[in-house]
Amino acid sequence: MALSRLIAAGLALAVSSHGGIAQTRTSAPTGSSTGPLLFVSNESSRDVTVVRLSDLAVIATIPMGERPRGIQSSPDRRRVYVALSDSIPSVQSPGDAIGVIDVASRKLATRYAGGTDPEQFAVTPDGTRLYAANEDAGTASAIDLRTGKVSETMAVGIEPEGVSVSPDGRWIYVTAETSNTVSVIEVRTNRVVASFLVDIRPRAAAFAPDGKQAFVTAEIGGSVSVVDTRTHDVTNTIALGERAKPVGVVASPDGRFIYVANGGANSVAVIDIAAGRVVATIPVGRRPWGIAVSRDGTRVFTANGLSDDVSVIDARTRVVVGTVRVGKRPWGVALVER
User: Which of the four, 19, 44, 274, 306, has the lowest number of CB atoms within 10 Å?
Assistant: First the structure.
């Protein structure tokens, strides 16, 4: 069953008789995990919430020990990787790492080296490498996912944060929020081959599905930079509005739109890529940062850090159709569709 039909069926059961937005309550773990799942990293409660999308039910809460922030699934959807960091390792909190969740068991299976203070990362399309931004060190670490060890460390900008990989697996873009730069890593050589300026405090980057363009959010600049990936040059800067504080960004699977989590503006901006402008602004929960889109493009999900919930957006009507309570200070979202 398509994701849109699964969610619609769940929402039909959850919507109140007054026609309000569906709201699920955090429940004890349940047995079934068939169908699409959403994994949500919760920075303050130090865990990951697993949401079954067929009925928007919370089916598991996975303790992580450290602060979980960046979160992505493996290309084969068998694992979910989570960036974990803590300044003072202890028995309860082993310190900086990339946590590896086994999707089938919904448990933390192991930890890989991730360099110092990993925040966001990207997994190459072939699933063999992971590139993490080491915020406090001004570096990016390349992790060999076959060994779980750091194979290379590269100097990038100051306070690196966002990491994205091109669809062909050739380029890694690493944003740096203090130097206002994006470093370009060539995956084949693990070398930084270019760097370019963007607007103030870049937080995240996303590539278009065809790989010809990339989009970089600037939280203080309140904008999105459009980048020609053939030359690594900024070709356009799209202003998102006076209150916008953009963080997470994702492209629709059909390459027509990008969705931007507007942080303190409590909204998601929809940008028409061809037109180069904002065509809709969707109110969501408080301080959305992490954002994901379903494989069929019908649903968008945001992690709302100050309302401790996830918003589910119908991409066709551009309205919130569901809200799920998760842990404390949700940071990122990763969708697992088999």
Answer: 19
204: left (phi over 0), alpha (psi -120 to 50) or beta: beta
Task: Report in angstroms the alpha-carbon separations of 97 from 84, 132, 133.
Answer: 5, 10, 12
CB atoms closer than 10 angstroms to residue 13: 11
Residue ranges, the chain, pLDDT below 70: 1-34, 87-94
Q: Tokens 């850090």 belong to which residue?
A: 305
Which pLDDT score, from 0 to 100, does residue 242 have? 81
Backbone phi and psi for residue 11, each to the nearest 5 degrees, phi listed first:
-70, -35
Residue 338: predicted pLDDT: 81
Distance CA 232, CA 174 (A): 12
User: Which residues face 82 on adjacent strands?
Assistant: 71, 99
CA 211/CA 331 separation, integer angstroms: 26
CA atoms within 13 A on the CB side of 271: 27
Which pLDDT does position 106 carry in this prediction? Answer: 97
**Residues of 234-265 as b/e, b for ≥16 C-beta within 10 angstroms?**
beeebebeeebbbbbbbbbeebbbbbbbbbbb
